Amino acid sequence: MKELILNLIDSGNYSEARKKLIEMNEVDIAQLLEELDKQKLLIIFRILPKEIAAGVFSYISNQLQEYIIASITDREIKNIIDELFLDDTIDFLEEMPSNIVKRVLQATDDETRKLINQFLKYPEDSAGSIMTIEYVDLKKEMTVKQALEHIKETGVDKETIDTCYVLNENRILEGVIPIRKLILSDETTVVKDIMDTDPVYVNTHDDQEKIASLFKKYDLISMPVVDNERRLVGIVTIDDVVDIIDQENTEDFQKMAAMHPSDEEYLKTSPWVLAKHRITWLVILMISAAFTGNIINKYNNILQSIVILTSFIPMLMDTGGNAGSQSSTLIIRGLALGEITTRDIFRVILKEVQVSFICGFVLAALNFIRIYFLEKINLLVTLTVCVTLFFTVMLAKIIGCVLPILAKMLKVDPAIMASPLLTTIVDATSLMIYFTFATWILHI
Amino acid sequence: MKELILNLIDSGNYSEARKKLIEMNEVDIAQLLEELDKQKLLIIFRILPKEIAAGVFSYISNQLQEYIIASITDREIKNIIDELFLDDTIDFLEEMPSNIVKRVLQATDDETRKLINQFLKYPEDSAGSIMTIEYVDLKKEMTVKQALEHIKETGVDKETIDTCYVLNENRILEGVIPIRKLILSDETTVVKDIMDTDPVYVNTHDDQEKIASLFKKYDLISMPVVDNERRLVGIVTIDDVVDIIDQENTEDFQKMAAMHPSDEEYLKTSPWVLAKHRITWLVILMISAAFTGNIINKYNNILQSIVILTSFIPMLMDTGGNAGSQSSTLIIRGLALGEITTRDIFRVILKEVQVSFICGFVLAALNFIRIYFLEKINLLVTLTVCVTLFFTVMLAKIIGCVLPILAKMLKVDPAIMASPLLTTIVDATSLMIYFTFATWILHI
Q1: Do A151 and A108 share a structural domain?
Q2: ipTM of the complex
């Protein structure tokens, strides 16, 4: 398909190319544009019918959006903005440099410009910044027949008509009604009698994380957004929520690997920006690892007198780190999904004590077999290593579950408390346990 | 609300309690049941109208489902199964022990039993196991008016009527049409002329991961599932896909923290099961860390002659591990979201070389300042540590980006290649680099 269209463009047969393009899904056209050189992409973009062009525009990358806006006329910009849903316009403008934003605003009419400016003021990641205003509103006194006629007259430009919103004369939200219920009800039924008067809704300033968790909890397809007076100002639709869920998850993955969260795509981010996101935590963790070095320094006489002890340091530190990050990951994920709350802290600790007892015992036993029987190392040294391993695993798992919950209590993101930071803490503690037991057991 | 209902139950005023319950959202009733003792929960469950009881049933935990099925009559079981959507029935039966499954199957009628048995045969996590059969089907010769009448007659039991499916006489999928388009079109229009003839669909055996990525790519609300002859057998709806996205993310988090993936909730899982999920990787990683110990052993003479070198080992190993897991996490996430493909391997390596050059340089420079100027340690030792750190960061980041891509090429889950396994590899390499440079620079 791609080659066919490119051939048609090359031979100047634009009308035929247009016909083929119209048959394609907008997402696939967007993907095609991403792969083309800039000249061809502009030709293809310009021969698209304007509704399709707007749809395609909302699916392409920020770089391409910027290039296209910079290359087309004000008239063409206005056409695209008129066809775009308001939430897609806001998404796009939030990522553009100010000269592009200015140009877009100048090209649009007064009313749209006012709306865009108002929406751009909502804090990023709030309900206000992701909602759309293209919804269907009904009055509670309407009959089903009147409601369906109203939808037919006004529904063309709405992002979703699956749910309709019932407002009073002050635009205060009185109820919602799924279109399904309207279609299945008798024509003379009054909206008031079949609407749901207790819908789930959010405020314009609520965070997108809250929105995502309400969508998941109540299996919603769309949700009303109201202002402080409960006036309906917009709706959030599930397609945006799916993106939010991925975005929040990506942020957690990045924080857990000691990086500044960013929602830019990897291949489209410059090495400088990538390095900037990573370097702070690397420096912090590097400096804190120096403390671990100091502990080794302090006990150097022990290592000097029983040289073999040094070779177990990596195993003890790594196993402690792994055991701890298993626990912290489960707890961080449980907190993020709402399966664990801060009130569960004692249940969690109790469970981790049990789990770490089992894990620590098995690991210590296997180590004993390997070190004493296979490597035939002195019994007291073997005991020192195995006892240290057992307590390191216990401690690592307990620290690993407590830290994320404490973070949550202190309103810090639990994901920050993940493996790298935990490993640094566990490293130091495991060495101290090691040298303490070495002093006791080996009488050094 | 909760206490009000409990008081009404206690005073035997069931009809009033029922009235209050009907006003509540099914999700909230389910949450209420989770908090009650078993006797009260059964009373409340029994006074619910049967459609609501079925909805509530689909939202409660497996433990409660099992308890309820074991406590109610066959007649009541049949009522619930009749009201449940088929995909919820399958979800529930997949988690139940065989005696409960048997009891449920005996209580249902022949036709439902046959359907359930057929669905239970689809592989877990395939399109077949998550689809529902409650969809609206149309014929392409119908007018919009006939189509809407058909929906009105048959739509009550359908999970979603937002999209209708156009089938020929052999039930082969010919197109889809959103209900929105039907409502907004003229009554005399024929379905054939407004349907989308090229819908996105999946096969019953396709994996749920593929389904989730198609939903995300095309912003879908529902998607048809067909058999090998392109006959429509069911549809998947977005509410199930949202759960899949969370489930897949949780699995990735768990694999990346070196655990066997599991979709059981943390607090509801026994310590034995939790320990079982964690111990295998802990043992594997512990044993491989023994190799790192062997490297230290081998170069013990170096550590003996310049004792201070030992104290930098934790810092070098930790920084290498952190630098590597930053890269691997970004790559694993990029692969999971489809932002990076295996074909990008050389672009990724090039980028990581640049990023690691910047990070390595900054870290080495800071270290030089700390070790040489602040801790006033010998210049050659300082140089050994800094040069090692630079090359360790370079190598860790390159290994960290290559391993997940190689895994993907070999059809292994890239998440397996995450920090713990990577750390083990980087530990060994960083020590070898360290001792090599120590031999060269310090002439030991």
Answers
A1: no
A2: 0.82
